[in-house]
């Protein structure tokens, strides 16, 4: 950066990744170093899917005649930082990366775009082509898995993006000044890890492959070493998920529970309480009810036996069990392959539907035809892993787990509230959709900002109030009031805080 020309930075992230926090860190560090700064942002339209851009220009304080722009210009950006590889491709395609001027820093992590997901075959973009383009189109490029570094250090990708930018050495202030604006140890750890990774790349070393970190198995503590209540919950969870899907799915639950256990202080009763509830909610969430699950439960022999006992069926009497079903387009889409499910949901969003749905039908589940029809539906569980809803639920679970790990390690009170958050995802049809809306708002407005800023302890009460409001009012009026900072209404249920004993 010359005395007059501003230093121009373009940040490209996805909604919910802390891009605004990253922008604020850069602005604060630059101003603390005596520079003039101007920043602006264009938010994405959807959490975790909408592209969000932040643009910053930095001019020295003495450059009084420097004119700072509100928007980036193609070919005139000094540094581009991206949280995802195809985001880097998007920025390059828009012309913001120049081989004469631009340092490009991008995470190699992937969040598949809608265009990739709706393709009938393999619609994924060729990552190798993006890497080759980055090497040719940027003056300097640093491509590394910033998401993995964030996970390893219990922080968000915004901290590792900041560390990679500072480690590249292109900013007009030094590392120590940059680091002082970070408010918590986790952000600092992620920052330091990214700085070290970029500096190794500058020295000619290849970045560590993500596969190396992923191949390192999660700790697998013996269940006998866990507190009684936690051990019981995990045992029931394993049984439930074997029954729901198969042994492999139960092992996925075990691996996820192990990650939570490794993040918690088992000597703190509050952390154990939060951990136990989190493992219980995780098992219930992973065993969400879809068409296949409902059909399976309705045709189990023990159900018919229970009904016979309840009606006190006598010898010579005939029992007819009639199910009332009202399939909706959303429920059909849930069990179909991802591309087809997405298309159906897009049609529903436009006000359309699919034929023969939304009507009530009667099926005799203990009759030959009705029973075989329901058993055929139950057999669709073997397709569940490739289904639209499975992909959506697993993505949401992984997002919740990352926040849960951070909360267990640093704020048991916040972790207790976060463990209760999946409670709002309940019911079917419109009820479930309203629950998903409330869940997304709480994650967006409370959970992710608190975890990114390290303010979980200060936010625990707000989180509990918001969950209580979401459970009390399906119109979301009470939730909106709590999110706006108003005290919760008296009728909102109180989520108890686990106190010291």
Mean pLDDT: 84
CATH level-4 homologous superfamily of the largest domain? Pyruvate-ferredoxin oxidoreductase, PFOR, domain III
Distance between the termini: 58 Å
CATH topology of the largest domain: Pyruvate-ferredoxin Oxidoreductase, domain 3
Strand order of the largest sheet: 2-3-1-4-5-6
Q: Would you tell me the structural class of the helices and strands?
A: alpha/beta
Q: What is the C-alpha radius of gyration, as a whole number of Å?
A: 26 Å
How many strand units? 8
β-strand percent reads 5-15%
Secondary-structure element order, as H and E?
A: EHEEEHEHHEHHHHHHHHHHEHHEHHHHHH
Highest-level CATH class of the largest domain: Alpha Beta
Summarize the amount of helix as a percent range. 40-55%
- Tell me the count of domains: 3
The largest sheet is:
6 strands, mixed
Structural commentary:
- The chain has 501 residues and is of the alpha/beta class.
- It is 53% helix and 10% strand.
- It folds into three domains: 7-214, Pyruvate-ferredoxin Oxidoreductase, domain 3, CATH 3.40.920; 223-289 and 389-483, no CATH class; 291-386, no CATH class.
- It contains 22 helices and eight strands.
- The strands form two sheets. Strands 2-3-1-4-5-6 form a six-stranded mixed sheet, with helices on both faces.
- Helix 12 (269-286) packs parallel to helix 19 (412-420) and helix 18 (388-410) runs antiparallel to helix 19.
- It starts with 6 loop residues before the first strand and ends in an 18-residue tail after the last helix.
């Amino acid at each position: 950066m010359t005395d007059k020309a501003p230093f121009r930075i373009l940040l490209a992230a996805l909604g919910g990744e802390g891009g605004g926090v990253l922008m604020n860190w850069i602005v604060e560090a630059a101003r603390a170093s005596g520079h003039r700064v101007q920043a602006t942002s264009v938010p994405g339209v959807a959490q975790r899917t909408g592209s969000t851009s932040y643009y910053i220009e930095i001019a020295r304080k003495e450059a009084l005649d420097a004119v700072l722009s509100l928007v980036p210009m193609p070919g005139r950006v000094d540094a581009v930082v991206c949280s995802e590889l195809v985001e880097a491709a998007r920025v390059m395609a828009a012309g913001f990366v120049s081989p004469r001027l631009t340092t490009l820093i991008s995470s190699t992590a992937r969040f598949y775009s809608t265009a990739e997901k709706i393709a009938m075959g393999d619609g994924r973009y060729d990552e190798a082509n993006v890497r080759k383009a980055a090497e040719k189109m940027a003056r300097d490029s640093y491509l590394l898995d910033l998401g993995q570094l964030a996970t390893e250090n219990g922080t968000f990708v915004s901290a590792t993006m900041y560390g990679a930018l500072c480690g590249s050495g292109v900013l007009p202030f030094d590392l120590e000044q940059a680091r002082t604006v970070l408010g918590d140890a986790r952000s600092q750890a992620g920052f330091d890890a990214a700085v070290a990774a970029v500096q190794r790349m500058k020295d000619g070393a290849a970045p560590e492959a993500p596969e190396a970190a992923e191949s390192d198995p999660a700790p697998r503590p013996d269940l006998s070493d866990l507190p009684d209540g936690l051990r019981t919950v995990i045992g029931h969870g394993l049984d439930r998920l074997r029954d729901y899907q198969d042994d492999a799915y139960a092992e996925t639950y075990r691996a996820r529970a192990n990650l939570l256990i490794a993040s918690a202080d088992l000597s703190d009763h509050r952390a154990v309480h939060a951990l136990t509830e989190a493992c219980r909610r995780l098992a219930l969430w992973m065993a969400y009810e879809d068409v296949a699950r409902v059909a399976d439960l309705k045709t189990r022999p023990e159900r018919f036996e229970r009904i016979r006992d309840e009606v006190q069926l006598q010898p010579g009497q005939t029992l007819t069990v009639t199910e009332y079903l009202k399939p909706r387009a959303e429920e059909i889409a849930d069990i179909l392959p991802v591309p087809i499910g997405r298309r159906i949901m897009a049609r529903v969003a436009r006000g359309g539907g699919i034929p023969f749905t939304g009507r009530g039908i009667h099926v005799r589940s203990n009759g030959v035809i009705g029973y075989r029809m329901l058993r055929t539906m139950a057999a669709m569980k073997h397709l569940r892993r490739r289904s639209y809803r499975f992909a959506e639920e697993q993505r949401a679970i992984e997002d919740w787990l990352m926040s849960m790990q951070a909360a267990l390690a640093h704020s048991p009170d916040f972790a207790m509230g976060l463990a209760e958050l999946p409670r709002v995802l309940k019911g079917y049809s419109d009820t479930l959709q309203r629950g998903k809306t409330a869940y997304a708002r709480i994650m967006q407005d409370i959970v992710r900002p608190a975890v990114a800023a390290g303010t979980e302890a200060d936010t625990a009460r707000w989180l509990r109030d918001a969950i209580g409001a979401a459970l009390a009012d399906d119109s979301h009026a009470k939730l909106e009031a709590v999110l706006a900072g108003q005290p919760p209404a008296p009728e909102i249920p109180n989520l108890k805080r686990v106190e010291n004993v």
